[in-house]
Write a structure and sequence with these properties.
The chain is mainly α. The chain has 3 domains: about 80 residues, no CATH class; about 220 residues, Hypothetical protein, domain 2 (Endonuclease III, domain 1, Orthogonal Bundle), CATH 1.10.340; about 55 residues, no CATH class. About 45% of the residues lie in helices and about 10% in strands. The protein is built from 16 helices and 6 strands. Strands 1-2 form a two-stranded antiparallel ribbon. Strands 3-4 form a two-stranded antiparallel ribbon. Strand 3 and strand 4 form a beta hairpin. The protein starts with a helix and ends in a 15-residue tail after the last strand.
Length: about 425
């Protein structure tokens, strides 16, 4: 049966439409990342004229769907391209708040801390010369005067004062060395108690032979309160053997010899040379000396050995022996590792310390108890007639708790503001 001419043209149009869609799909897959057609994908005028689908009347709906799909793909590709091609200098880099530069307000009136001025190293004509920090003599003299009024544990129980006076010089030097070895990571009060145990319980007394004869377990029991007593027992027993075999029964008289002993570091060696042999060959720098001199701004060091080198480069040698004792006592009483008492320090009053911190208020509760008769039977009750809290001037206006006592028992707690005369108003007499 023959088909009409119209039917044949309709079939050719359908086949051309299917072929055109296939070509469009292949071209869209070859698009670049920025959504622009390649040179080979651009439609030519001849191709459009040859396609039977170029007429909007014949394939309007299909072409509209293809354009919408193509438009969505172009938008996605353009967004990805713009995100990838932003220059680095136009991006915003987030920085830590701690590293952000601090902006100064125009009306800022807050006083700034005194800038630290450590020792300076300059090149002299022949060698590197270290200039001492400014006002260091005033700081040193003020600290020495303040330490005379404040008694610290190191003044009565320091390693220099723990050796027995009735012993021979050789035994006293040995006891000084052992006291220094025990003092590491240990408070002076505990070290003094351990030394007393050794002096009273070692066989034959506290001497070299006594250290050699005592059993390690017994020696460990004598010093069990000190820090790291197990290791110190091994170190001291080994040191006694080395002293007997290599140093003729006496402790070494050089820094190299002392440092070679087990458990003895540079700090102990310099302190031992000064206390036992009377020779100041270096500064014994412990945690107090290292911490306080950095707080003063004399230098900026990270280890005690660096602090020792800095101090020895400019501090007069006649002060090498005293500075350890001076600053250890200051660190034990006023310039504590935690909770420094700057309000009691003369350096803070004279504004000589650049690391002053606001200390917590000192409050002292004052009670005045009276006895009154509250009934005809003669029963006596104790009541608080007057009670106040003495505080420093910085605490004016701060509320403090005031307790009302009755025969030792708290019967009432009030929050009263501190008055201008630095005492809180006492509650009325309360009888219970």
């Amino acid at each position: 049966m023959r088909t009409s001419r119209i039917a044949n043209e309709t079939q050719r149009a359908i086949n051309a439409s299917v072929a055109s869609r296939s070509v469009a799909t292949r071209r869209s897959s070859r698009r670049t990342a920025n959504g622009v057609l390649g040179a080979e994908d651009k439609p030519t005028k001849e191709g459009l004229e040859e396609s039977p689908l170029s007429s909007p009347l014949s394939f309007h709906n299909d072409d509209k769907h293809a354009r919408s799909v193509d438009l969505r793909k172009r938008k996605r590709a353009a967004a990805a391209s713009s995100a990838k091609t932003i220059p680095l200098d136009q991006t915003t880099v987030r920085r830590s708040s701690r590293k952000a530069p601090k902006l100064e307000d125009e009306g800022e009136t807050k006083p700034r801390k005194t800038k630290r001025q450590p020792a300076k190293h300059i090149q002299g004509p022949h060698d590197l010369v270290t200039l001492p920090p400014p006002n260091w003599e005033r700081v040193y003299d003020t600290t020495a005067a303040m330490r005379k009024r404040v008694l610290a544990p190191v003044d009565t129980m320091g390693c220099e004062s723990l050796a027995e006076d009735q012993r021979s010089p050789q035994d006293r030097r040995l006891q000084t060395l052992v006291a220094l070895m025990l003092s590491s990571q240990t408070k002076d009060t505990v070290t003094a108690a351990a030394m007393q145990n050794l002096q009273q319980n070692l066989p034959g007394g506290f001497c070299l032979q006594g250290l050699l004869d005592v059993e390690p377990g017994d020696f460990n029991d004598f010093i069990q309160k000190v820090g790291f007593h197990n290791n110190k027992t091994k170190f001291i027993k080994s040191t006694a053997i080395i002293i007997r075999d290599e140093h003729n029964g006496d402790i070494p008289d050089t820094i190299e010899g002392l440092v070679s002993l087990p458990g003895v570091g540079p700090k102990m060696a310099y302190l031992c040379m000064s206390a036992a042999w009377g020779r100041d060959e270096g500064i014994g720098v412990d945690v107090h000396v290292h911490r306080i001199t950095n707080l003063w701004g004399w230098h900026k060091t990270s280890t005690p050995e660096q602090t020792r080198a800095e101090l020895e480069s400019w501090l007069p040698k006649e002060k090498w022996h005293d500075i350890n004792h001076l600053l250890v006592g200051l660190g034990q009483t006023i310039c504590l590792p935690v909770g420094r008492k700057c309000g009691e320090c003369d350096l803070a009053k004279d504004k000589l310390c650049p690391s002053i911190v606001a200390s917590s208020p000192v409050k002292r509760r004052v009670k005045k108890e009276v006895q009154v008769r509250s009934d005809p039977d003669g029963e006596v009750k104790t009541v608080v007639k007057d009670e106040r809290v003495e505080v420093q001037q910085d605490d004016v206006g701060v509320k403090v708790e005031v307790e009302t006592m009755d025969a030792g028992n708290v019967v009432e707690v009030q929050a009263a503001p501190v008055a201008q005369d630095y005492t809180s108003v006492a509650p009325a007499v309360i009888e219970r």
